[in-house]
Design a protein that fits this description.
- The termini are far apart.
- Strands 3-4-5 form a three-stranded antiparallel β-sheet.
- The radius of gyration is 27 Å and the shape is elongated.
- About 60% of the residues lie in helices and about 5% in strands.
- Among the domains are: about 200 residues; about 55 residues, no CATH class.
- The protein has about 400 residues and is mainly α.
- Strand 1 and strand 2 form a beta hairpin.
C-alpha cells in the first residue's frame, strides 16, 4: 500500500512539473501546437508534423536540400506538390521566406497598377497633376508635375514639405498650356520604368515559388533554383534600365553601351547559374560575389551621370535613391553570405530571423527605393527631354 501511494505521488508530481514547464515556456508550447508536434514523456518536442507530413532535421535531408547547416530543424523533404503548395499556410523554416517575397510581389503589382493609373502614358490625353503620385508611394516630398492635355509635362523639381501649402496649379496649368500649343511638348517613353517593375515582380515571384516547392524533388529543386537565380539577375539588369535610358536619353552611344553591357552581363550570369556546381553550398560566397559585381557595375553610369548632370537636382536625388538601394542590397549580400545570426546560435533561428529571411527583407527595401528613383527619372525627362 505504501509503495502504491508513493507511486501516485510521483505521477502527480510529474504532471504538475510538466504543467509548470508549459507555463514557463509558452513560446515553445505554441510552436508545438502550430506545428502539430507531440510531447514525449520527458517534455521534449517530438516529431513535428505539417500538412500530414513529418518535418525533419538537417541531418535527415538529401544532399540537394542541404543549403544551410546552421538551420537545424523544421525542414520539408521530398513532399508531393499538393502538400508543398498547402504548406504555404503552415509553419516551417521556409514559411517566412515564401511570404516575404510573395507579399513583396503583390506590393509591386499594386505599385505597377497605381503607376499605370497615375503616371500618364505617352498617349495620355487627360490632365492630371503628377503630384498625385504621392498616392502610389505615400511620399509627399516627391517632385510634382502637371500633365497637359496633350501629354506634355512641366515638372516642379523643388521638394515641397508635407506641411507647406503652396498654390502652384494655376502657374503649372499655364506652363502646360504653353507646352501643349508647341510641337516640343511630348512625353518620354515608359518601357524602361515598367521593365524594371516587371523585373522586380519576376524576381519576387520566382523566389517565393522556389522556397515553397523546391522540397518536392531534386529535379524540381534544380529547375526552381535556376529560375530563382534568373529572377535575381533580371532584377539587377532591369534596375539599370531607368538609370541608363533616362540619364543618357540624348547620348545614344553611352545609352546603348551601358544597356548592352549590363544585358550581356546578365545573360552570362544566367548561363553560369545553369551549371550544377553553381548551387553548391561551399560556393555561397561565389554566388553572392557574382550578383554583387553585377550590381556594383552600376557605379559607372552613376558616376558618369553626376559628372554630366551634377548641377541638376534630379541627378542628385536619383543618385541618393540609388546609393540607398545599393546599401540595402550590399547588406543583404553580406547577411546571405555570412549566414548570420544563425551561425552564432545554430538552431535558435530555424523558424524566425535567419539570414535568408533578412536577405529577403533587404531586397524588397532596395527594390522599393529604386521605384522612387524611377518616378523622379520620369518627371525629369517629361519636363526636359534633352536639356542639361
Amino acid at each position: 500500500m505504501a509503495s502504491t501511494v508513493t507511486l501516485l505521488k510521483r505521477r502527480t508530481t510529474t504532471i504538475r512539473m510538466s504543467d509548470v514547464a508549459a507555463v514557463v515556456s509558452p513560446t515553445s508550447t505554441m510552436t508545438s501546437l502550430l506545428l502539430g508536434g507531440t510531447k514525449g514523456a520527458g517534455g521534449d518536442v517530438g516529431k513535428q508534423r505539417c500538412c500530414g507530413h513529418d518535418l525533419v532535421g538537417y541531418d535527415a535531408l538529401p544532399d540537394f536540400l542541404k543549403h544551410n547547416e546552421f538551420v537545424l530543424d523544421y525542414y520539408r523533404s521530398e513532399w508531393p506538390i499538393k502538400q508543398a503548395l498547402l504548406s504555404a499556410f503552415a509553419l516551417h523554416n521556409e514559411t517566412i521566406n515564401v511570404w516575404t517575397h510573395l507579399i513583396g510581389f503583390f506590393v509591386f503589382l499594386a505599385l505597377t497598377v497605381c503607376a499605370a493609373t497615375m503616371v500618364p502614358m505617352e498617349t495620355s490625353v487627360v490632365a492630371t497633376p503628377a503630384g498625385h503620385l504621392a498616392n502610389c508611394t505615400g511620399n509627399h516630398t516627391a517632385p510634382t508635375a502637371y500633365y497637359g492635355t496633350n501629354g506634355a509635362a512641366v515638372a516642379m523639381q523643388a521638394l515641397l514639405p508635407h506641411n507647406v501649402s503652396v498654390s502652384v496649379e494655376p502657374e503649372l496649368a499655364a506652363a502646360a498650356a504653353a507646352l501643349s500649343s508647341s510641337s516640343a511638348g511630348h512625353m518620354v517613353t515608359r518601357w524602361p520604368f515598367y521593365a524594371y517593375l516587371c523585373g522586380a515582380m519576376f524576381c519576387l515571384l520566382m523566389s517565393s515559388g522556389c522556397h515553397l516547392l523546391s522540397c518536392h524533388s531534386e529535379h524540381a529543386c534544380y529547375v526552381l533554383l535556376r529560375l530563382d537565380y534568373a529572377g535575381i539577375t533580371g532584377l539587377i539588369v532591369t534596375s539599370f534600365y531607368p538609370l541608363v535610358y533616362y540619364t543618357f536619353l540624348c547620348d545614344p552611344f553611352y545609352r546603348d553601351l551601358y544597356l548592352g553591357a549590363i544585358t550581356v552581363f546578365g545573360a552570362a550570369a544566367v548561363a553560369v547559374s545553369m551549371l550544377p556546381v553553381f548551387e553548391a553550398p561551399e560556393l555561397r560566397w561565389a554566388r553572392a560575389a557574382l550578383f554583387a559585381c553585377m550590381a556594383a557595375s552600376g557605379l559607372v553610369p552613376i558616376v558618369h551621370k553626376l559628372l554630366v548632370f551634377g548641377a541638376r537636382p534630379e541627378a542628385v536625388l536619383t543618385t541618393g535613391y540609388e546609393v540607398a538601394m545599393g546599401a540595402f542590397y550590399l547588406a543583404g549580400v553580406v547577411v546571405y553570405g555570412a549566414r548570420v545570426p544563425e551561425r552564432w546560435l545554430p538552431g535558435k533561428f530555424d523558424l524566425f530571423g535567419h539570414s535568408h529571411q533578412l536577405f529577403h527583407a533587404l531586397v524588397i527595401a532596395g527594390a522599393y527605393t529604386h521605384y522612387h528613383a524611377g518616378l523622379v527619372y520620369l518627371s525629369w525627362r517629361d519636363m526636359d527631354m534633352c536639356s542639361r
